[in-house]
What we know:
The complex is a heterodimer of chains A (221) and B (204). Chain A has 221 residues and is mostly helical. Chain A has helices at residues 3-13, 19-29, 33-49, 61-70, 79-90, 96-125, 128-143, 163-177, 182-185, 188-199, 208-220. In chain A, helix 1 crosses helix 3, helix 8 crosses helix 10 and helix 10 (188-199) packs across helix 11 (208-220). Chain B is mainly α and 204 residues long. Chain B is built from nine helices and no strands. The two termini of chain B are 29 Å apart. The interface between A and B is large, with 58 and 77 residues.
Amino acid sequence: xxxxxDSQLSAMFDNELPAAECELLARRLSRDEELKGxxxxxxxxxxxxxxxxxxxxxxxxxxxxxTAISSEPAVVxxxxxxxxxxxxxxxxxxxxxxxxxxALAASVAAGAILFLRYESPTQVASQxxxxxxxxxxxxxxxxxxxxxxxxxxxPKTLPRRSVVPSTQLANYVVAHSxxxxxxxxxxxxxxxxxxxxxxxxxxxxSDEPNEDVTDDAKTAH
Amino acid sequence: MSADVSDLSLxxxxxxxxxxxxxxxxxxxxxxxxxxxMRYVRNPAEAEDIAQEAFIKAYRALxxxxxxxxxxxxxxxxxxxxxxxxxxxxxxxxxxxxxDRSSDAAEESYDMQGRMKDSETPEGLVxxxxxxxxxxxxxxxxxxxxxxxxxxxxxxxxxxxxxAAAMDCPVGTVRSRIFRAREAIDRRLREVFEGGLGRTExxx
Lengths: 221, 204
């Protein structure tokens, strides 16, 4: 008998053989009767050292079990069990996994944008009084005759939460409008920004915002 | 190293339809299992019957074994349950009263029936004693380092790494010492069977 093989068998008996070597030796052990005999004697030696009193070392228990299971169908663990367990992991092709990550990141980004866009109107909507009052003012102003300017109602300025950024933005737009075309300058946004800059104490070196306000007022009329 | 790697490789072979691999597992654990069952039944022959039943149950249940625990731990639980059920069913079975005998005599009779139920022949008892004597004599004759290594392994159940630490030597040396100890004992054991009683197959 090959001494290296016996050494492996001894280590395998103690569960101390590397897995790769175990696979090969297990195959041989299950078929080689001489190896099995040695394996059995290793077990008997262990039982003797442990002084397992009352245990018959020359037992034919293994023969009896072998005879009993010979009539049993062979145990076969079908691959389908493993496949079923692996299916959820393989439901998505491997090449699709990076795309799914990108899609996830994109959906998060889109969600964030939608959230911010939703939040900004909310902040504006939190100041509905001026807008509503403004429109009512215009209506009231329209309804009233030009001869009755006393009916002009100046809406109360409600505290705003996001005034500071809009002041900077207004300054930028006003400054930009000096260089932009007249058509663009006369749009509603420029007018609004100009009025914002006026209320926020923007430099009044330019008359353009006032001009815009006048134009917008004319338009409203 | 995994503590159950070689058992697991045998189990996987059984799960692939190799009954011979299960035979190797039975040969390895038969003595341990009988000893375990004898905590519940004193009779060795009855303990072997229960162990046999436990092995067969384990074989049938092997498709469900996933290797989450060590194979012997799993087998241990099956054997304990089988032994408990056997004791319960034995206690529920009708008791045969013999009014002509004292209780001590009846118990002795039961023990004798149990012993003779299996093929417990005088020759078999002699062989077990002979094996024990031979193994013990072979261990005594071993060089001290081999004897220490095999005893630490079999009696104390230490891993090779633990033995290496205890004996202050490499793991490879431990593996070699245990193998050489087993070979020396096995050589004497084979002489007993081949020269004397000539029943090597009984150990399988």
